[in-house]
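Hello,

Following up on my earlier ticket. Below are the two sequence lines again, exactly as submitted.
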Amino acid sequence: MPAETGTASPIVYTIRGCDACMKLLRKWDAEQVIYEERRVELSQTVLDEARRLGQLVPIVVWPDGRVEQGFGDTIGCFI
Amino acid sequence: MVHATTIVTPARFVQGLSYSDFLAQATINHDKFNESYQSVPLTEGDLAFFRKAAALPQGPKKILALAEAWCGDVYRELPTVARIAEATSADLRIFLRDQNPDIMDEFLSNNGKSRAIPVFAFYTADLQQITHFTERSASAHAGLTSAMDEVRAQLKLPETATFGTLVDPERTAFLREVIARIQPHSTQWRKDAIAEIRESLATAVGIPNAS
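Thanks for your patience. The regenerated structure is below:
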């Protein structure tokens, strides 16, 4: 089932120590993508929210509700 | 065999966090750490071995851990080492990986490319490094590889397919199936980690790997 974002920008759940997360953020920053970052390592509430969406960060929730886990050829970090 | 240490001086070592201080500073996963602590698969035989090793003049008296509270391998394995430290009266000091890159650099894995955690380094009383363990057991690594092979076959994916080369919905299905296969082995892999640490310590300090 698609997730609800209610925004026009993607939401990305990250851990700043996760290489895949940082690669995605660097790519988006270079492309000037506007996004909302939610850092799961800073809040149990945000972590629980991310776990309802997937098991691997980065987790991206696109404005149309699609959810993607991981990034590129790096598997990402299990949460 | 005892190895000379470099970055980890006595003054630096004592700056590490105790287990309780590590938990106190962690903002997440308290339930996971507590669950793992309560279910540590250490046997009486394991504890007798670690006590015997610690009693040696050049035995492990200090343990350094590199960790982050968000990491699944950390909340599964760090409580085991906390229990070992309690049972042997070893001084366990925990360093946050992302705040201590110089210490992390001493324990890189994957030919120097990975900053995998947890790392548990065992030291003598005068901080000579004895041995260290990184991330998870060899059986867990092998099990993950095997699970991925099985899932490729089940989903009729090319043998060369990896998580990174797949696109949704195959990517999500691949991940779901791999996780379903590895989760039942979690307790056994924690036991295997203990066995690996025992074997490594027994070899390093020159005692039989027996209770």
